[in-house]
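Hi W., the nicotinamide-adenine-dinucleotide complex you wanted:
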Amino acid sequence: MATKVIVQLPGEQDYAVRIGSGVIAKLGQNLREIDRFSASRDVLVITDSNVGPLYLAHVKASLANAGFKSADITVPAGEDTKAVEVAAEIWSAMAQLSFGRDCLVVALGGGVVGDLAGFVASTYMRGVPVVQVPTTLLAMVDSSVGGKTAVNLPEGKNLVGTFYQPSFVCADTDTLATLPEREWRCGCAEVAKSAVIDSDDFFFWLLDNAEAMAARDATVAMEAIQRCVVFKAGVVAQDKTESAGVRECLNYGHTLGHAIEACAGYGTFSHGAAVAEGMRFAVRLAADMLGGADAIGEFADAQGDLLDMLGLPPLAFEAAPEDLLAAMKRDKKARGGEVRFVLARDIATWEIVPVADEVIVKALSR
Ligand SMILES: NC(=O)c1ccc[n+]([C@@H]2O[C@H](COP(=O)([O-])OP(=O)(O)OC[C@H]3O[C@@H](n4cnc5c(N)ncnc54)[C@H](O)[C@@H]3O)[C@@H](O)[C@H]2O)c1
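Structure:
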């Protein structure tokens, strides 16, 4: 069972996202079919210490079957690995292996490996191709598509990076079998976000299938991934570099979500749980700011039901509203000290609104 979405972005080569059970087995063959990739290419597979032991041999076997020789690097699992020092170690390893401009980087792992490997590939020798092999639900539905790469600085997350599209994405849903439950729910929050922003069709399909999604039903998960990829590709096609005010919609729920993660201490709550709370808050704020509270209330209830069914209940978390506001202002997405929210008043009806400090504090106090 496999499917394919073609991502078409202005000024970029089209690329395929192959989604399904067992698609890693065909990865090497798929790469050979991309006319730029002959078997004489040097390939570097970058993975992390959790994913490598599970799937690296499988990826390398698939590459070898298609005639590719590959080297590999395993980085420690976790967000700390998204650092310029780790990128520098990989650049050096590639240089020591005499990798030239015709090499190829394969990112095997979640969003951390994907962002790091994409950054390395986009900068090594001014850019070599990267192929994403996402192994978390979040990476399959979001980070592996759209071309944002990044490393973190001590001053903040994702402060250094590039826009650099992959040449191919291979989302093997079999790898999700080993994903910890907490990571599954993180991905579910991004699926819910995409459904709310996208359309009635996606939202109500997900509402109907939310329990199956929470129970990790393979057929439902595959369709959710496919719908998210189609949605994200459509958004990115309109605003590749997040400069036209469209791509920012992907930040729905993240303004408060990031602040909760920062105030509670990273790792206390999962990213997904914090984003889900941010989505609930964004709707309450929409009712305060945009009017039409009754209509918004109906949507808020439907969104609340969806998040509950996906295993993302309201968070039991208390913090001083001023501390949450300060964290929002430190976020790189605040502009000129002003906090901007993606507010949704209904499904597929969102806008980006700068919100005054006192309005945020008042809404948080409730
Ligand atoms: N580039 C983008 O557009 C974009 C979008 C959203 C998020 N991100 C970034 O993505 C990162 C988060 O990604 P993530 O949630 O995938 O986290 P992650 O990469 O840290 O993966 C989560 C954990 O699951 C483990 N893991 C991964 N796949 C597994 C599998 N199949 N079986 C068992 N364990 C597995 C990892 O080793 C890790 O411990 C953040 O750094 C975030 O900034 C980027």
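The mean pLDDT is 95.

W.
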